[in-house]
């Protein structure tokens, strides 16, 4: 029979995989196949590892002193014990890279060497911190099973057999419990950090969505205004086409209207560039408000029960650009809505001032409400939209709490 035929006809083992030691180690130590990937220690890791090394050395020295006092122990066994203890203390520096391998190796070493007891406890604690319970159970179970044999082989001269066994069993269980507690705390902190990052990401996405919706609403309004300008321009151009014999004054007046409409259409077109336009809206075709509609807005708010004071000091209000007036109106409208929701009963002051060649300033301020106000749900998307409007108009908008506890919205819009 050839070697190939023998290999094909050889019986194949189909039993449990954990029967083979290599498979067992692979199942228990997931880092065995990633030994080349070594994480870099931080300053805190160096301090902790050095402290563990010193603790292992200190416990080893105490054990070595106990060995010298034990005259019944053969000299060769004492020397072997101390050699294993020294090697174990040096192996403490491998506890982060191979926690399971070190803890598993310390089971037989700790059974043979009294000076390696500190390293065995540290390795078990490290394993409980860095690995799930199913890995810790193998090592801890083996250590607990060897405790009675250890004190039968090397009895403690100061403690009875039962007391020594119980004391070491309690120490082993406490070490495992402490390590699992530290692991659970670390997992909780990682979970909280992950939730915080996801909350920040969701808040940023909501703000970006609100900004995009505000841009789309502004684009729709600009579309309506631009359509109005172009329609007016087309009407006057058509009149000139069908009335070439019109009086000179009418032709000059129509040309002036065409020139002014084209100029205003270009201004509106500059504002709409860069703004993504969505589909049709329910507001399509609705007349757009201007600064002159502020009086009507304030009157409607007063009829609804609000206390509103309007201080309007605008020079030549009729010459306010339509886009600037529309933005100022929307700012006042949103600010009054917020004041009605979050500060019911408080008196709201609306101030509008400016002139040609200067900035148009809009300020809406309300004091803190009297008494307790039930919380009103809101994500601040209205204020995000107002800031977007002011930015697209070339201005700026600020909002926040006042020193008295009220709220203020302040905007600056260029008036060229």
UniProtKB/TrEMBL annotation:
Residues passing through the membrane, by range: 46-64, 76-94, 100-128, 135-153, 159-181
Keyword entries, A-Z: ATP-binding, Kinase, Membrane, Nucleotide-binding, Phosphoprotein, Transferase, Transmembrane, Transmembrane helix, Two-component regulatory system
Residue span(s) of domain Signal transduction histidine kinase subgroup 3 dimerisation and phosphoacceptor: 215-279
EC number: 2.7.13.3
Reaction catalyzed: ATP + protein L-histidine = ADP + protein N-phospho-L-histidine
Start and end residues of each Histidine kinase/HSP90-like ATPase domain: 327-414
Pfam families xref list: HATPase_c, HisKA_3
Name the UniProt record assigns to this protein: histidine kinase
Species annotation: Streptomyces cellulosae
